[in-house]
Amino acid sequence: MPGTSRMPVSLRNSFTVKKGSSSSQLLSLNIDLFRNIIFFLFLLRWTRKGLLQLKGRGVLGTFADAYIAIRRNLYGLFLRAPGVRSQVQKQVSEAITKLQGKLVPSGPGVVRYLNLPKEGWSEETVMKELQNLAGMDHTRWEDGFVSGAVYHGGDSLIKIQTEAFGKFTVANPIHPDVFPGVRKMEAEIVSMVLALFNAPSGAAGVTTSGGTESILMACLSARQKAYAERGVTEPEMILPETGHTAFRKAGSYFGIKVHLVACPAPNYQVDIRSVTRLVNSNTVLLVGSAPNFPHGIIDDISALSKLAIKRKIPLHVDCCLGSFLVPFLEKAGFETELFDFRLKGVTSISCDTHKYGFAPKGNSTVLYRDTTLRSYQYFISPDWSGGVYASPSIAGSRPGALIAGCWASLMSVGEAGYIEACSSIVGATKKIIEAIQENPGLHNDLEVLGHPLVSVVAFNSKTLDIYDIADAMSAKGWHLNSLQNPPAIHVAVTLPIVKVWEKLVSDLEAVIEGEKEKERVRIVEGKGAKGKSVGDSAALYGVAGSLPNKSVVVELASGFLDTLYKA
Predict the structure, then answer these.
(1) Using CA atoms, how far apart are residues 54 and 108, in angstroms rounded to an integer?
(2) Which helix (H) or strand (E) holds 448?
(3) In this chain, where does the modification N6-(pyridoxal phosphate)lysine occur (predicted)?
(4) Any idea what DSSP says for residue 199?
(5) Per DSSP, which regions of 209-345 are E strands?
(6) How far apart (Å, rounded) are the C-alpha atoms in residues 361 and 384?
(7) Does some domain include residue 76?
(8) Is residue 322 part of a domain?
(9) pLDDT given at position 4
(10) What is the CATH number of the domain that holds 305?
(11) CA dist., res. 128 & res. 488, Å (int)
């Protein structure tokens, strides 16, 4: 058009190419920048993790952790080598078959019920078969030969519990309007246990199915609190290596990294300095035991409380085993330590009413310093098509009969009864400790671990294989607990054991003398003092337990769990 200038075609094409080239270069620069940012954030995250590791474990501890991890992985590869794997698998299979032979009844007289009967049995037939099942060959806990396991409050208490069961067999606390009596009893159980542990005004709690669920709920509450109040998305908790394994289960279930802290000899309490070093911005919970399961030792809860207050971190005290003994130690005239809500840093406590509270199995409590902490364990679904759903813990429906049995137990035994039980149980424990430390037939070979104050005494041997002693005690009918790291045996004293603690001591003397005689014979025969350990405890803890990679133990334990469901 007249008066309009036109760009030459060659120049126009050149401009277009340059413009496209600039856009491509800009895009490339943006991609590179994005990659660099991602790499920088990745590097920053893992640098931070490395620094926290160094702060928590120190240089030597970090190298030790790395060495253990490398050794474990290399040994795992060795166990998976073709020739080795087949041998390991063969031995594991043999061990599991042997275990099944012990646990699963067999033979021509054994009848298995794998399908529903075509017609329902008569009451007489059902009761007869139940009697047969109750009479199956078993370790005689009734005679006091079982460590822990059965926390028996007496035949008269069992009769009361059975009647309570009968009255509330169909009750379910998820329907408090239908079963108001169960709601009342559950609230009163929580109130009574809170009072035992000197809870402040405004404290709260719930009942659970057992100590594991109580611990799970306390860990969940701590995790949720940290997320809601501090935005923590990579939660960590710090616990003694002797802390109940339910804390490790909570870590696995809820994605909480678990730091285990050593409990060194001679006191076997958690090392407070190590705990302090491990605290960081991701820490959501500190843990102490009162007492712990393995050795019966009460951790330094006062020191943990001070640390919890200083760093503004929740502190959970696991009293599942101590339950209705530790609150009564002082009134029963025994040495004790502060461990409960009187320490300001303690924010939650787990207590099993089904242990030394003598309630039926399936009863426990988790207690909180205030209702806000409790609310963090709640599950509420406001928009479900089935209606608004809310539950205080893992279970939905729960057996009201168990709550009734627990309430009946607490009301029947009462404070005076629990003080008397504490006096008997802890008194017998101290007599066993005294025998091990002063009896000439025991103190030269056995050593009590730490300074236990409650119902558990753990001991190892300075001269003999402790697992051989455990197996020899099993041969005499005792069902004691074998421990590892360090190798030891523990006895959790119950009311049935109170009646036979002297036989326990005399059998220990006989077993030790028998093991020493075996050594003397081997020396005379020129075979050396130490023989090959062949018992179950020696096999599991002495041999498999000493491997740097625990995959064999995991397979054995998995096989044990499978066996439980073999009809």
Answers:
(1) 63
(2) strand 446-448
(3) 355
(4) P
(5) 236-240, 257-261, 283-289, 315-318
(6) 33
(7) no
(8) yes
(9) 47
(10) 3.40.640.10
(11) 42
pLDDT at position 532: 56
Task: Report pLDDT for 295.
Answer: 97
- Please provide the DSSP assignment of 250-286 as one string: HHHHHT-EEEEE---TTT----HHHHHHH--TTEEEE
| 8 A C-beta contact, residue 489 and residue 535 | no
- Taking every pair of C-alpha atoms in the chain, what is the biggest distance, in angstroms? 127
- Angle among Cα 489, 492, 493 to the nearest 5 degrees reads 130
Type of residue at 283: T
Q: What is the pLDDT of residue 291?
A: 97
CB-based contact 340:349 (threshold 8 Å): yes
Nearest to 294 by CA among 270, 271, 273, 278: 270
Query: Within a domain: residue 466?
Result: no
Range of the domain at 310: 159-413
> Cα–Cα distance between 351 and 366 in angstroms, integer?
6
What confidence tens digit (pLDDT) does each residue in 90-134 have?
888 888 888 888 888 888 888 999 999 999 999 999 999 999 999
Q: 448 with 520: CB under 8 angstroms?
A: no
Q: Are 320 and 352 in contact (CB under 8 A)?
A: yes
Q: d(Cα 75, Cα 548) in Å, to the nearest integer?
A: 7
d(CA 352, CA 455): 14
Q: What is the pTM of this model?
A: 0.87
The pair of three-digit structure tokens given for residue 200, joined into one six-digit string: 């402040």
Kindly report the backbone phi and psi dihedral angles of residue 494, in degrees, each rounded to the nearest multiple of 5, phi listed first: -125, 175
| 57-66 contact pairs (CB < 8 A, 24+) | 57/277, 57/278, 58/277
Q: Which residue has the tokens 């402040």?
A: 200
User: What pLDDT sits at residue 17?
Assistant: 44
The answer to whether residue 228 sits within a structural domain is yes
Cα angle 182-185-191, degrees, rounded to a multiple of 5: 145
For residue 348, list its beta bridge partners.
Answer: 316, 368
* Residue 124, Cβ density class (10 Å: 0-12 exposed, 13-18 middle, ≥19 buried): exposed
Find tokens 């023989």 and name the residue: 531
DSSP SS3 for 117 = coil
Q: How far apart, in whole angstroms, are the C-alpha atoms of residue 27 and residue 250?
A: 47
Q: How many domains does the chain fold into?
A: 1
Q: What is the pLDDT of residue 269?
A: 97
- Report which of 293, 320, 288, 322 is spatially closest to residue 307, judged by C-alpha positions: 288
Measured distance CA(462)–CA(468) in Å, rounded: 13
pLDDT < 50 regions, the chain: 1-5, 7, 9-17
